[in-house]
Amino acid sequence: MRLSGRRIIVSLLILSTLFVGSAAAASPAGAATRGPTNSERRIAWLINQARKHANRPTLKYSYALSRVARGHSAVMASKGTIFHTSNLANSFRNFSWTIGGENVGMGPSMNALHAAFMASPHHRDNNLDKRFHRFGIGVVWKNGVAYVTVQFLS
């Protein structure tokens, strides 16, 4: 989504946003060292494969940004619905960045969610935006449903 306030909801319930701003802090000290889960690895691989096919550089996985994304996915799972981070710029406060974006969704599998993301112009734009260099991914499963947050930074 470009800052116009529009939201797209696709059959698997996905939302996308793009935020342009500026922050000058370094990556947070003591950032999470836990590696990605299998689901997080899968969605990361799918996004980077799509980027390769579109002649875009692959995104670098960020453990610290994934910790933020996991936190948001956990809140969505607890509420049983999806929504964007209420103050996305604030969630990026501990990172150095100039542009950020977020895709959120819920669905039965990473393949289904990725297909829905790529079928939606705004989500596809975030996945393939050449200004982004890194991403964080959080996947939380609840009652057989994956709640996914993908956060992108330049």
Report on this structure.
This protein is an alpha+beta fold and 154 residues long. It contains 5 helices and 5 strands; from the N terminus they run βαβααβααββ. The chain has helices at 38-53, 63-79, 88-91, 110-119, 121-128; strands spanning 14-24, 60-61, 96-107, 134-142, 145-153. A 5-stranded mixed beta sheet has the order 1-3-5-4-2. Helix 1 packs parallel to helix 4 and helix 4 crosses helix 5 (121-128). It is globular, with a radius of gyration of 14 Å. 40% of the residues are buried. Residues 1-13 and 22-33 have low confidence and may be disordered.
Key features?
154 residues, 5 helices, 36% helix, globular, disordered N terminus
Radius of gyration: 14 Å
Name the helicity range.
25-40%
Described by strand count, sense and barrel closure, the largest sheet is:
5 strands, mixed
What strand order characterises the main sheet?
Answer: 1-3-5-4-2
Outline: globular
List the helices and strands and how they pair.
Layout: E1 14-24, H1 38-53, E2 60-61, H2 63-79, H3 88-91, E3 96-107, H4 110-119, H5 121-128, E4 134-142, E5 145-153
Helix pairs in contact: 1-4, 4-5
Write a compact overview of the structure shown.
It contains five helices and five strands, in the order βαβααβααββ. The protein has helices at residues 38-53, 63-79, 88-91, 110-119, 121-128; strands spanning 14-24, 60-61, 96-107, 134-142, 145-153. Strands 1-3-5-4-2 form a five-stranded mixed β-sheet.
